[in-house]
Write a sequence for this structure.
């Protein structure tokens, strides 16, 4: 006879993602990142290190950037989750940060880009007047192996400066 652990039993969870409720069934130990990708079909949230170090899985949870690989899906019930899929307008118009990343060449392979976009969105929404040094510090929490960061900083700075103009 096989013993079933409580951690193996899926529970119903309602995740509010980008303004839409997703009713899913998730084991209590299943991460938010895995649930977003596999149950909600939102594959823009990337998994890199799965230890909370790289930031590729960054989403906004009630407006705050969080590493979705470090949260369980059941912990996110009742919160407002925003993923990179929710940045563009309903008509497909790019978000100013997406446009700036493209214009300033703030991406190369693109793997880290969704995490940087969500981190930048959270930073600029909560601190629209963030200084350059603090902006660099905030962006340094995510890892990029391709761009050298300068173009990412320039992209985010351009959106910050345009909003303050």
């Amino acid at each position: 006879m096989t013993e079933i652990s409580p951690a193996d039993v899926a529970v119903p969870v309602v995740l509010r993602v980008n303004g839409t409720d997703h009713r899913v069934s998730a084991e209590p130990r299943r991460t938010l990142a895995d649930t977003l990708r596999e149950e909600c079909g939102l594959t823009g949230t990337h998994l890199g290190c799965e230890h909370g170090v790289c930031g590729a899985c960054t989403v906004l949870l009630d407006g705050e950037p969080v590493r979705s690989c470090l949260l369980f899906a059941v912990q996110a019930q009742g919160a407002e989750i925003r993923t990179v899929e929710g940045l563009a307008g309903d008509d497909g118009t790019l978000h100013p940060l997406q446009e700036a990343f493209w214009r300033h060449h703030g991406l190369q392979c693109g793997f880290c880009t969704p995490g940087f976009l969500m981190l930048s969105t959270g930073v600029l929404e909560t601190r629209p007047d963030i200084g350059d040094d603090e902006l660099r510090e905030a962006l340094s929490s995510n890892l990029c192996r391709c761009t050298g960061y300068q173009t990412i900083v320039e992209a985010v700075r351009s959106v910050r400066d345009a909003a303050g103009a």
Observations:
- The chain has a mean pLDDT of 94.
